[in-house]
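[step 3/7] fold_predict: job queued, chain A
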Amino acid sequence: MRTKTYKTGLNRGNARVWLEGAVLLQHGVLRGMPFKRDMRENSFVLIFDDDERDDLVGDHHVAGTEKRPIIDLNGNWLTACFDSAAHYDATFHHGHDNQPPAIFIARRK
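[step 4/7] structure written:
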């Protein structure tokens, strides 16, 4: 498990989360992997599992290349979740014991 702090980006006036490269590869997140969001108050979890779960939202895939995977998220839902926060923390969990990788993302106060 590893936590990193990132600056909240902007895209067309909405908050943006951009994660890329080695940190994703080190935690088992590869280009093309499907993921969904488990929304919480002021945070969310990216779950890299193709199981059908009704409580998850979104239908995303990791973009980029084999050597540089990219997760790029933005929109009104993220702006509402971050509430003008300038930074966010991303905690990376490597999948193990038949559990998929996950990334917990929370706004910094």
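[step 5/7] annotate
The two ends are 22 Å apart (CA to CA).
The chain has one domain: 2-107.
exit 0
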